[in-house]
Specification:
Blueprint lengths: L5 H5 L7 H14 L10 H39 L6 H6 L4 H19 L3 H22 L38
Helix pairs in contact: 2-3, 3-6, 5-6
Amino acid sequence: MSLYDPFAILGVSIVASERRIFQRYESVTAVLDPDRFREMSEFSQNFAAERLELVRQSYQDLMDSKPKYLTQLQDYVAENRPKPEGAIATALSSLLREDIKKIYIAAIRDLSELQFSSRTNVTQITPQLTDLNLAYIAIALDFPNPDEGGSPIPTPPRNDPPEFGAEAEPDEGVSLIP
């Protein structure tokens, strides 16, 4: 079974507000705009077009039903109890509980800044973002590190209201895919 993670494809955390999701969508679609690829190889044009379609679908899915996709990820973690594969996701589970959310969001932000800077980054960073999302959910559901004690970190509410008054971090570092 292939796991679909629209948060990772778009490059946002599972706790991102609707405003942040929209800002990221606008940023990525500008990078993947077909007009930017007119002078590039057919392979680059096709790659960007495919990624743009994935990004559009992920954005639409999150706008239509963010709680549904969060629940699917939570269910996947509960059923499969995946172990983190990447160094960042592995390190996340060893942090103090009060630091986890802050570091998770910072790691997602840092990786997403690089995500669409090259074809290689797109194919390597998106799975790392999924790995981080699954690790964060596993920690939030209190599966790993049961000997640590303490209560699990809170997960976002299932009906997360938009936070249009909050300032979102800017997407910097997003550039044209060579």
